[in-house]
Amino acid sequence: MSTNTSSHPVTTYIGESAWSLIEPRFSSFAKKTLENLIDFLETECLPAEHLYHAQIPHDPVQRWKVIPPVMEELKRKAKSRGLWNLFLSKLHYPEHGVDLTNLEYAVMAEIMGHAPLICPQATNCAAPDTGNMEVLARYANPEQQKKYLLPLLDGQIRSSFAMTEFGVASSDATNLATKIERKNGEVIVTGRKWWISGAGDPRNAIHILIGLSDPENPNPHKRFTIVLIPADHPSVKVVRPMQVFGYDDAPEGHCEVLYDHVRLNEKECLVGGWGRGFEIIQGRLGPGRIHHCMRSIGTAERALNMMLERVSDPKRKTFGKLLKEHGTIVGDIAKSRSEIDAARLLVLTAAHRIDIARAKGAMKDIGIAKFTVPTMALKVLDRAMQAFGAEGICQDQPLAQMFAGLRTLRYADGPDEVHMLQIGRAELKRVPMLAERSKRIRDKQEALEGKGKVQAKL
Amino acid sequence: MSTNTSSHPVTTYIGESAWSLIEPRFSSFAKKTLENLIDFLETECLPAEHLYHAQIPHDPVQRWKVIPPVMEELKRKAKSRGLWNLFLSKLHYPEHGVDLTNLEYAVMAEIMGHAPLICPQATNCAAPDTGNMEVLARYANPEQQKKYLLPLLDGQIRSSFAMTEFGVASSDATNLATKIERKNGEVIVTGRKWWISGAGDPRNAIHILIGLSDPENPNPHKRFTIVLIPADHPSVKVVRPMQVFGYDDAPEGHCEVLYDHVRLNEKECLVGGWGRGFEIIQGRLGPGRIHHCMRSIGTAERALNMMLERVSDPKRKTFGKLLKEHGTIVGDIAKSRSEIDAARLLVLTAAHRIDIARAKGAMKDIGIAKFTVPTMALKVLDRAMQAFGAEGICQDQPLAQMFAGLRTLRYADGPDEVHMLQIGRAELKRVPMLAERSKRIRDKQEALEGKGKVQAKL
Amino acid sequence: MSTNTSSHPVTTYIGESAWSLIEPRFSSFAKKTLENLIDFLETECLPAEHLYHAQIPHDPVQRWKVIPPVMEELKRKAKSRGLWNLFLSKLHYPEHGVDLTNLEYAVMAEIMGHAPLICPQATNCAAPDTGNMEVLARYANPEQQKKYLLPLLDGQIRSSFAMTEFGVASSDATNLATKIERKNGEVIVTGRKWWISGAGDPRNAIHILIGLSDPENPNPHKRFTIVLIPADHPSVKVVRPMQVFGYDDAPEGHCEVLYDHVRLNEKECLVGGWGRGFEIIQGRLGPGRIHHCMRSIGTAERALNMMLERVSDPKRKTFGKLLKEHGTIVGDIAKSRSEIDAARLLVLTAAHRIDIARAKGAMKDIGIAKFTVPTMALKVLDRAMQAFGAEGICQDQPLAQMFAGLRTLRYADGPDEVHMLQIGRAELKRVPMLAERSKRIRDKQEALEGKGKVQAKL
Amino acid sequence: MSTNTSSHPVTTYIGESAWSLIEPRFSSFAKKTLENLIDFLETECLPAEHLYHAQIPHDPVQRWKVIPPVMEELKRKAKSRGLWNLFLSKLHYPEHGVDLTNLEYAVMAEIMGHAPLICPQATNCAAPDTGNMEVLARYANPEQQKKYLLPLLDGQIRSSFAMTEFGVASSDATNLATKIERKNGEVIVTGRKWWISGAGDPRNAIHILIGLSDPENPNPHKRFTIVLIPADHPSVKVVRPMQVFGYDDAPEGHCEVLYDHVRLNEKECLVGGWGRGFEIIQGRLGPGRIHHCMRSIGTAERALNMMLERVSDPKRKTFGKLLKEHGTIVGDIAKSRSEIDAARLLVLTAAHRIDIARAKGAMKDIGIAKFTVPTMALKVLDRAMQAFGAEGICQDQPLAQMFAGLRTLRYADGPDEVHMLQIGRAELKRVPMLAERSKRIRDKQEALEGKGKVQAKL
């Protein structure tokens, strides 16, 4: 009946209660790494957040050519602290992975989410590189791994994943239309994609692209193939950065890209073999969704922390009272507390489920988290923004940019509606079991009452 | 990486993922008891639910005089199965308690919540007896324990707790006005209470009453005392049963009671000593709130199960489709699934917190659960009722009566608003820690940027 | 720029702003009638509400045999004031109707909704009699009108409408299975219905029943016929009253009724002719839905009024403050005010639309009101109940019974979900017009920009 | 009973039902102007929307120096059509006003809201110029009017209103700290403001600034004065544009401005006299809030229109179905339809109230609209964005920028919370009237029942 679990600094982030529930499952390595990460967040990432933005030029051309120097400095520090590639679990990636379970990493992803534009990248744990490294580790051949996986693991280059297409309802991946053709020993890629994250980044070395290679295959899930395209290929044309609300997220960006008859060498470009595109992207999504969710929870927690400080600020009195003494503010704080805590437990449970049943066995838990967490986080962010007034939605606070980023998660990797449909249907699969149970209960009831003896309830 | 945890039948109630998270904390005794309880629910309680209601007479007088025989039969069966007084943890009540933690019992309370009017009473785990037994076990003298605690623990008698008062805003307990006076060696109790659960029950033997004994005490928390009043005392007058929505919950009831100069012997009646009323009721509330929450989650889970069966029922086609194929039904199911799962984890975390830090150390977790769970459960119930149409709100299905019961939990033991206020304030206590952290970050930032060197973000 | 419109007492019910918007459309007869009705509500109906309930016996048999005498007294008073059958607009029913538009009556229905169990019945404006009188006035033959319509118009008898069936998804009326057969010159009705409102009432004289008369008709909308069945026919068996939450709504009730080979004379029983059942019930629903909505708004307004008084009650201080000084109460009041006002305007607009385009031309407005108003009113009621605590859900206040009644409106006459679907589809019918407009705009844009000259927005 | 009101093109914007309710209050001039405006929107504004954005340079300096030529062209066209200064009602501004009521203009503001960045400015009806012209028309001296009001009315110059301050909780205007001092016959203004809309615009000629002129005045509402500051005064320093989410809204902008000892001539600068600042800003807010609300409703209506087209687009099939055939889309459309319609009626009612009782008599209606409409519009926008997926939040669709603009309205001119508080309190002022009515009813009830004769309801 001791409470000394609470001495770990993570309790100031996730609370003592959640920690005491999961703490026995954390190795001492994980606990130390977590402490290390928290220190890195507080002493390096958060202090550098403002400088990072200040080092991005305003000029519309230059802002895509310069990497803020403070970021490369942070990466060096993270690597020397051993805070590197934490997302890659040795459980699933014995060769390159780190000795952390998904549950252990989930808490770390939440910590990173407090500085969502800084900390994940600084620790080489940022999307889309994370999912790309997983794909390359599992499906790429040794040549490809040497050329792309190792420098990615080392943080020397970055990468993008080219899936979403212009003018296409690509939440149904079978609609993808970018062509991958084999002609005279060459592979030729032709199409227009957009929202290709990282394609604007001068460090980007590789596009991992999924396209339609076998349109006539009767099995629609075998029509697609994944290829590697060097970012500097002359037929790859970055057309423009897309904006999220007004943000272009330079220098990484989410770009429209024209693949204008990109000619590739088949052996060099093919990932996992012809027709395996679908299989590969499905494996890519599970843990990544949990990471997004945990980072979102960290972001929401930070927003709540900011709100707590703001409404207690003696300089912010209105009508003779602190903001926290007004109307509904305290109630809003309580709701945010409850919603964040509940969402965190939901995601931790899903992360643990991945540990014991792999992503496939955790699909339901992942799906629930996927459609629940971003909506929750947006509500918390919105309340925090409201407490900050005009300051809350401008460049002087990180809230609006965080909100914009979170908003994309309600359709990225499949819109909420699709995930809700899938979860609803998964629940409906319990009906035969329930119906059988109900029948047993009714039989017992009839035996107890004597058929027809007891009247309908009046 | 095995999933064989899933073989326990509880996984069909709380899901495999929640179970795998908490299963290592369950003793083998707890696991067996849980399996036993599930069997008791399915083979005894649920089949008896209809008969229980059918055995309550319609006559407005008779319905307060008869205990449905099936209930006493169920109690015998539960006792012989060892499913008895499970709520009383040996951890806190070494003498009479059962070897279960709060976490272990929490899951059992959820199971009981599937038949909320049957299973808790059948296992001697029903409010208000549970809290009353805790009070008597902790504060009553040996004579009192012999007379009331032992028969309560044995299920021979029932009890009520007399706190809420007519015409008084008793969510602030310092408003209580029922007088407890000492005169000529006697204790005299005078007042009008209502919503005294169980006061209509012919088995009720004892009112545990809190009243104002020392109105002038400068410390408002020392003005109140708890006394025991035999239910058959001639000056105790049960005026009428109160209705919850239209339900009178006979034969137990929630009654208006007139204490009309009830004369008592001081030694026999006094619990814990003069002026300790407040202290006692506060200790009474913590775990009880968690039990309410877990039962509510069980009730919500049953409502969702009922909805799943209903919308899949081939007899319920409208416009050529099953209900589940219409509009928003599947989305509603997904939301209910997410909300129940999140709420369960919140309450399990609070229960575990009580195990390691007692009720006092878990106040925040308990408070969050208290204002979150009933609202969640009401939403799930409402969706289920809507899927059942008119049948959903009538006596042929348990949903409406469950809804009514759950609705009371939004103000019983303190209204949601009070709990939200307390949780909001508890969160605000984190501000000094956060402010100190923010200051450290700002100092680092200035050191990094060089004061004034980096301009405000344009 | 005068505000003297505000002198009408209705402004204390619907506010000055809504009144000044619609006042020019009110005849002076309507204004006087409205003033008369408000006086009747305040001086007769509301003072009698408690007595009405007290005059209903508790005995489960007797409560279906006695009409509270105060109700017959109120009916006499209403009739002598000319407050009688106000629902029947001369616009649509020149023979029996009153000189009021639907808009004018809508405001009166709101006033009646302040005492929903008293005032509509006292003024002969209560469902299901209202819709039944409309059906009889439009489709019954002179004999039938003499026998049933005239005594209904006079308030001597009451009536019920038998549609909903046991075990059938009757929100899709084509599922109805009660048989209406012609044999040897007789009509024979066989089936089991439930939720037949008014079937328990000793004054009930007539069941207007819809059943399946021509199951093989290729047009499913021509398979049904409406017949009149005398309530005292020996083959009509009232099985039991259904409960709404715990309320049986005696003496009127909503009963399960067995039609056990009810033999009828074809000429006497047939309404409007064979196969016209569908057509008749559809015409019956439009204005009735608006009446339900306006009464619901009146009920919500009363709940808000009650809440306003309660939270200002100096006897209800908690923690040293009036309830209105606590947390979110004032915000809840503001939300309720906004929601009621918006809903009222929506329904008034629909009522006015019926006046100018009949029910058929107002289907969209009626549908929007139908799925919007009950949910709104339930929210307002729920907030009011919460402000009253335990007292709010018991028999000492009307709130819980009002809540139960409002809850039925979310599926009665078609569940919310069906109406939302229909409105969504009606909106989608605007797409061709919108697409044509969009095309015109794009053509203009291209002319303005010069095709291809202006680049995609960067 | 005719429906030929529906021939006006406005029925395709606000629906036939709302139009038939208000149409009798529209003059034939107003109807023609409305038709003219709709034509201008469809044939000029919407086709120019894309070009307007394309003509704003990307260069961070240049974008503040260039006015998109298409805007000046649109202004010429609007003026020649007589669509100019429609916001200024002759009712309140006989000299410069247009012959339109607030109700009539409200519908026009909704039409303008379909192109919120184009149409209001093109018709000289854009904030903050509108409120500024009202202030100058009412309070400026003839010299000032000649210099600023006339060119503003003519659309030659633009203006800004300098109120919000950096680091100050300026939703409580008594917190404003910018100093206005009189020294040696000069007026000196010193302070830092931000969110000064239009201050970045090269056409901006004048800052109307409110500052603290008499800090010791015992009446805090008399401490403030309004002065005119030429935009090109050398001591006015535009520090930076603030971003709303990621948008800088160039070339108008919302800027941080340093007033660095701005020396002014007292006669030229003073508006309305010393100490009248508060009085002036309060008069400025009423109708302006209604204009914001109506434009927001127009924006929401456009978003719904866009959603309707999108979900019907045959190119957007997923999983073999149009988007509108999936899950909750149709329900979302129905909800949006209901919410927009209800909000519109609320605002039209408030606008009409201003016509008959001026802004002061309409404060409650304005307040309800103020806190209800932006939240409603944001919900509608959010659903539309979700239907568009990634495209919905980027520069290829106007939705995200509209969302950002609407989000500011939840705190601009006072945060929602303040307005809800005021409306809640206004409602509570009805309590004495309600209490008096309740007393009358209770007295009647006692007379009816005979005191004490009828028992409490059992």
Structural description of this entry:
Four copies of one chain form a homotetramer. The first copy, chain A, is 50% helix and 13% strand. The longest helix of chain A is centred in the middle third of the chain and has 35 residues, at 277-311. Mean pLDDT of chain A is 94; it is low at 1-5. Chain A is built from 14 helices and eight strands. The radius of gyration of chain A is 25 Å and the shape is globular. Chain A has 458 residues and is of the alpha+beta class. The N and C termini of chain A lie far apart (52 Å). In chain A, the strands form two sheets. In chain A, strands 1-4-5-8 form a four-stranded mixed sheet. In chain A, strands 2-3-7-6 form a four-stranded antiparallel sheet. Chain A folds into three domains: 4-154, Orthogonal Bundle (Butyryl-Coa Dehydrogenase, subunit A, domain 1); 158-271, Butyryl-CoA Dehydrogenase, subunit A, domain 2 (Beta Barrel); 279-432, Butyryl-CoA Dehydrogenase, subunit A, domain 3 (Up-down Bundle), CATH 1.20.140.10. Chain A has helices at 11-22, 28-54, 69-81, 102-112, 119-122, 129-139, 142-154, 266-269, 277-311, 329-361, 363-388, 399-408, 416-428, 431-449; strands at 158-162, 179-183, 186-197, 204-212, 224-230, 236-241, 254-265, 270-271. At the A-B interface, helix 1, helix 2, helix 9, helix 10 and helix 11 of A face helix 2, helix 3, helix 10, helix 11 and helix 12 of B.
